[in-house]
Amino acid sequence: DNMRRQHTEKIRDFLSEKPQGVSVVAIAAGEGMKRLFLNLGAAGIVEGGQSMNPSMEEILRAVEMAPGAHIILLPNNPNIFLTAAKVREISTKEIHLVPAETMAHGIAAMVDFDPARQAAETLKQMQQAASSISVAEITRAVRNSATDGMNIKKGDIIAIVGDELVAAADSLYQVMENITGRFKEQGAELITLYHGEEIDFIEAEKITEHLRGKFPDTEFELHNGGQPHYLFLVSGE
Fold it and tell me: Is 195 helix (H, G, I), strand (E, B) or coil?
């Protein structure tokens, strides 16, 4: 909390000197994810995500409260894109959208956020950062199904990249290995794991150490995202 207040004060001090400055508002779910966005410089957080889309009024309120004349908005879910676009139409501020499809994409964009840069330059850098990574969402199947040659049972662990189901198994370890190998084949050198609210930190560490053993030439980072619905968000870059 102290770090958050200090960071917010620094951002506000900077923007008070440069009122045309840039702030970020992010849609996020999970205490860990919200902390990550704030620590990386987000001025406002709107609670929301998969199956809990925030209203236009909630996003607009956060945008109007954020300091600066330019706001970069991170929807972090395709279902929120349309609402975010409507906010851009009615806000008194200049709204710039980074089409981040997941919170992991949004975190990648935040790494390149710099409030001292011009809005157009910062927007370009953040868009490039978000589009430069691959992200898999790891969750459980809610019903029996068959797709792309995979027979999936209710309760199986599945991995989704974009709109495509790319892996399924009854073992979380097996699916995590599958996704890591897939991202490695695409050239990823860093794998970042954000564990959700259903996975405690001890289990998340065990999985991370298992992957380090299987892929010794790969760098791994583990963060407590605390996100609902997804056991892990996995990014490769």
Answer: strand
Q: Rounded CA gap, 42 and 66, in Å?
A: 9
CA Rg value for the chain: 18
H/E stretch holding 44: strand 44-47
Q: Within a 10 A sphere around the Cβ of 7, how many other Cβ atoms?
A: 16
Contact 30, 226 (CB under 8 A): yes
Contact 116, 93 (CB under 8 A): no
**Residue that the structure tokens 């008194």 belong to:** 92
b/e burial code for range 205-231 (CB count within 10 A of at least 16 → b): eebbeebeeebeebeeebbbbbbebbb
Which tokens hold the place of 164? 């495509």
Any idea which residue has 């089409």 for tokens? 99
Q: pLDDT digits over 48-71, tens only?
A: 987 789 999 999 999 999 998 999
Residues 137, 233 contacting (CB under 8 angstroms) = yes
Backbone angles phi, psi at 143, to 5 degrees: -160, 165
pTM of the model: 0.90
